[in-house]
Design goal:
Radius of gyration: 28 Å
Strand content: 5-15%
Order of helices and strands: EHEEHHHHEHHHHHHHHEEHHHHH
Protein name: Alpha-amylase
Number of strands: 6
Structural class: alpha/beta
Number of domains: 3
Keywords: Carbohydrate metabolism
Pfam families: Glyco_hydro_57
Shape: elongated
GO molecular function, one term: catalytic activity
InterPro entries: GH57_Enzymes (IPR052046), Glyco_hydro/deAcase_b/a-brl (IPR011330), Glyco_hydro_57_N (IPR004300)
């Protein structure tokens, strides 16, 4: 089940069964117009179709072409978005009776998806993720620089939260709720009104302060936990590709070798040209990477001491073994 987005559908209708690109997974698309008529516009007295009765809505459904109509709305539609005095409960009570007059069948999505033939492919590439909010994209959560920056902070904590686990990981996941980013929207107009309606904060600045303080407190707690035994946790940290260690042979000559974790670094050091090891020792790259992302101060100190004597070591394979030995010394069984 996903959103029937105009920019993806083009001239096509959402009221058919589609399949996902590159697979046989059947896809049902939400008809956002008919869904939002109930979910958002039902109690809007400025709406040109107000009031919306069950009879009128059933008639709209009967006049809608296609094989299947997916109407998807929030549970809070009935009581929160629209209070009981708007007539929303009466609308819901009478709707099945009105629908039956037009011989419209109501079915489980799993039934409807296989009852009708696949009409076409619904292709949503990774760089064009869709939603049912605002402009049907990710702009509700990542539409401004504040949202993007705080999300980068949140994702940066991921490998460390996973390495430590337990309550730290649980809190990290809770702070990943999309609502926290949703509250940081700076949109105006109708979309902005919806953001403001759902936010428990008086303004964006309060929302930002609370979320930033929570993430900072979590980062401090994770850092303190790792500091208790950095060697233990270092072996569990797997960095995203953005922060991986890139091996070079000489300036401007990168190798096709990258390490995202301490075990991966050790494995690559066993086969990388020794000239690359010497290059990085002289520059202090290994020590800086391990200190910055793994907090291995003792290990980095030993590497820095070795780098000062690198030119006096003529047996290059012995040098390789010394570097690997230093790194393996951080492992706690």
């Amino acid at each position: 089940l996903t959103e029937g987005v105009d920019c993806v559908l083009g001239w096509r209708s959402p009221n058919y069964v589609y399949k996902a690109w590159g697979s046989d997974i059947r896809v049902l698309l939400r008809n956002y117009r008919l869904s939002d008529d109930i979910g958002f516009r039902f109690s809007d007295k400025k709406w040109d179709q107000y009031p919306l009765t069950a009879e009128k809505y059933a008639q709209w459904l009967s006049q809608t072409s296609g094989d299947v109509i997916l109407v998807a709305i929030d549970y809070e539609t009935f009581g929160e978005h629209h209070s009981i005095n708007t007539g929303i409960h009466e609308f819901l009570r009478w709707l099945p009776l009105e629908i039956a007059k037009y011989n419209i069948a109501t079915e489980f999505p799993s039934t409807a998806a296989f009852k009708y033939p696949i009409r076409d492919v619904y292709n949503v590439p990774p760089w064009n993720t869709i939603s049912w909010a605002d402009e049907r994209d990710l702009s509700a959560w990542l539409g401004n620089e504040i949202q993007k920056t705080i999300f980068e902070f949140y994702t940066f904590l991921e490998p460390y939260a996973k390495a430590v686990g337990n309550d730290h990981l649980r809190v990290w996941r809770m702070l990943g709720s999309s609502d926290h980013l949703y509250y940081l929207s700076m949109k105006g107009g109708a979309a902005g009104e919806v953001h403001t309606y759902f936010s428990p904060y008086k303004n964006l600045f309060t929302a930002l302060r609370v979320y930033t303080e929570a993430l900072t407190a979590l980062a401090s707690a994770i850092s303190s936990k790792i500091a208790e035994n950095p060697y233990k946790y270092a072996y569990n940290i797997v960095l995203p590709s953005l922060y991986s260690f890139q091996f070079y042979l000489t300036p401007g000559r990168p190798l096709s070798l990258k390490a995202r974790s301490l075990p991966e670094l050790i494995t690559l050091l066993e086969k990388v040209p020794v000239e690359s090891i010497i290059y990085h020792l002289r520059r202090g790259d290994l020590a800086n990477w391990l200190r910055t992302f793994f907090m291995l101060d003792e290990i980095t100190t030993r590497l820095e001491e070795l780098s000062q004597n690198v030119d006096s070591i003529k047996d290059y394979e012995k040098l390789r073994e010394m570097v690997i030995s230093i790194l393996r010394g951080s492992k706690v069984s």
